[in-house]
Design brief:
alpha/beta, Rossmann fold, five-stranded parallel sheet, two-stranded antiparallel sheet, 9 helices, 7 strands, disordered N terminus, SGNH_hydro, SGNH_hydro_sf, Ester_Hydrolysis_Enzymes
Length: 222
């Protein structure tokens, strides 16, 4: 396996001069749900690499809507092996983005967490450890939500206090393992509540077209 250079770890804008085999695993933020124009930030990154780079980098989107951390862990080492350039090979880089589906409260705003925070910390540590055994890893954090639009699907109450707790747990786990973590939540919250709401879909959970463009820019520039 070739070594990923430090510029790539610091910013996905600067790439090594050899083809990379990259997989992005996670939930609907990876899948790109809510963006009928650009297909999400992963698709935008794939198109960027195809259109502007002299070296053909391969990026597979392995996002599944609704996935929680334990589900991404279960499929981590299976799915990419069925992709052409990765048959019988390891990726050069894994991009992870998952956790938002673990964080809602069930049934009511003060209901129990879908995934207990202590259990989540164990599961995210397991996911990161397993991924790091394969290749370098980058983690893209979750976005804030619009609490006024809850519940999602009539039963999931997402809120930004719990979002912050779960993203901090993920960020700490990444820091322990020296995995680059892009703190999307803090970046977006720093731009103000009005900005956040204007970049979310009507469901209050998923980014809209402008939101995915902003997310793509945040990921590309670290």
């Amino acid at each position: 396996m070739q070594t990923i250079t430090r510029p790539l770890i610091n910013s996905l804008k600067t790439l090594p001069n050899y083809p990379l085999r990259v997989v992005a695993l996670g939930d609907s933020l990876v899948y790109g749900y809510g963006d009928p124009v650009g297909g999400g930030w992963v698709e935008r990154l794939r198109r960027h690499w195809m259109s502007t780079e002299s070296v053909e980098h391969v990026l597979y989107n392995l996002g599944i809507r609704g996935d929680r951390v334990f589900q991404v862990t279960e499929r981590l080492e299976q799915e990419y092996r069925y992709r052409g350039e990765l048959k019988n090979r390891l990726p050069d880089l894994i991009i992870l983005s998952v956790g938002i589906n673990d964080s809602p409260r069930l049934g009511r705003p003060d209901g129990r967490l879908f995934t207990d925070l202590d259990l989540f910390q164990e599961q995210i540590s397991q996911l990161l450890a397993q991924a790091q055994k394969l290749c370098p890893v980058i983690f893209v954090g979750m976005t804030p939500v619009d609490e006024a639009k809850m519940p999602f699907l009539d039963c999931f109450y997402f809120n930004n206090i719990d979002q912050y707790r779960f993203k901090e747990a993920t960020k700490r786990a990444c820091q322990i393992r020296q995995i680059p973590y892009i703190d999307i939540f803090d970046k977006w919250m720093a731009r103000g509540e009005d900005w956040v709401r204007s970049h979310l879909s009507s469901d209050g959970l998923h980014p809209n077209v402008e939101g995915y463009q902003a997310l793509y820019n945040d990921v590309l520039h670290g």
